[in-house]
Amino acid sequence: LFVMAGTDSSASSRQSSFNSLAKDLELPLEQGCLTIVVLGASGDLAKKKTFPALYHLFEQGFLQSGEVHIVGYARTNLSDDGLRGRIRAYLKGASEEHVSEFLQLIKYVSGSYDSGEGFEKLNKEISDYEMSNNSGSSRRLFYLALPPSVYPSVCKMIRTYCMSPTSRFGWTRVIVEKPFGRDLDSAEELSSQLGELFEEDQLYRIDHYLGKELVQNLLVLRFANRLFLPLWNRDNVDNIQIVFREDFGTDGRGGYFDQYGIIRDIIQNHLLQVFCLVAMEKPVSLKPEHIRDEKVKVLQSVNPIKDEEVVLGQYQGYKDDPTVPDDSNTPTFASIVLRVHNERWEGVPFILKAGKALNSRKAEIRVQFKDVPGDIFKCMY
Ligand SMILES: NC(=O)C1=CN([C@@H]2O[C@H](COP(=O)(O)OP(=O)(O)OC[C@H]3O[C@@H](n4cnc5c(N)ncnc54)[C@H](OP(=O)(O)O)[C@@H]3O)[C@@H](O)[C@H]2O)C=CC1
Ligand SMILES: O=C1O[C@H](COP(=O)(O)O)[C@@H](O)[C@H](O)[C@H]1O
Q1: Which pathway does the protein contribute to (predicted)?
Q2: Is residue 270 among the annotated active site residues?
Q3: Ligand 2 center from residue 208 Cα (angstroms)
Q4: 269 and 342 fall within a common domain
Q5: For residue 139, which of 27, 227, 52 has the smallest C-alpha distance?
Q6: Element (DSSP H or E) covering residue 165
Q7: Are 274 and 141 contained in the same domain?
Q8: In this predicted model, what pLDDT tens digit does every residue of 60-72 receive, in sequence order?
């Protein structure tokens, strides 16, 4: 869609290209009143990524004034302008005219994550807008920019108070962030709780790493490239390192981060997805189910992780963040070795490392090849 959008600069022609593509793909026509609710609107993800992403969609003509209404929801006491001011600070460099127009689409509702009162207020805000829009439609998208511990109560509240009315054309969809639970038991419990409230096609589980260009290019690099194809195995590769580092700390995110730590925040989802794309076999096709099947196979081939191949750490000063408990022993750095028991990778360690408050910001995949036989450069190092 974005490639198509790049060929013509007008917003209305992008919208019409979008509509004709939707028609070709036999998707339901997307038009009429759309409300996007960002729950956890006071938080880090919302200000750094969700609202800026919505702004870029708006700027490119995919969200039309008059059709779209954006509502931030959280417990923090904020006015509409208070939220707009926070968002504006993350849209530096954008056109002032577009930013002001975009911010006018945004309202704020304050309430808790487990009481009917706040969600009744939220529903009233959405319904009033839908009535005034008068298009007879009600598309409602709820984005949970929140710690997973509150997903079940928030989803119950949405189901009870905020569903799109069946009398109107439209839908209700819910986007949930990673990490999906804390461990296998809580992930399964969360899955069944959400499954009781929503149909599978109403639920979207997101991992923003899968949208990164580098990550998307991995399939092309591996499977459309004669140079790497014959080398990508234990005969040629010595080890593979998948590394994430950030040069900033939690910065007030202790409310979420301290409950989860770096393994659940980064390694279990982002780095494991990258690991799968690097290590899996070629999928039958690019269909999502075929890619998923190969990812599952490689994960099933990983041996249990050995304690002696895990290093954990916490950066000095982590507990100075007022949102972090004084006695926290949550890791902010972790390094683990994965060993894949299959024909391609037996004996090749995959070293996954992630850390906050380090000396640089980078995400990288290092494939270290074995020395060449008869290496004439060896004596130089
Ligand atoms: N920050 C990022 O760059 C990214 C974050 N994510 C994911 O987004 C989700 C939210 O992360 P992030 O925004 O960074 O975290 P924050 O700590 O900023 O939390 C977001 C909001 O949730 C509320 N909140 C925080 N802690 C709790 C708690 N213990 N119980 C109830 N409500 C709480 C707060 O709102 P209030 O008090 O006003 O209600 C807060 O503003 C996580 O699942 C994370 O994995 C995903 C990708 C990137
Ligand atoms: O999911 C998360 O990702 C961000 C890093 O993402 P990036 O795309 O900005 O590199 C990380 O800061 C955050 O802790 C984590 O929740």
Answers
A1: Carbohydrate degradation; pentose phosphate pathway; D-ribulose 5-phosphate from D-glucose 6-phosphate (oxidative stage): step 1/3
A2: yes
A3: 9
A4: yes
A5: 27
A6: none
A7: no
A8: 999 988 899 999 9
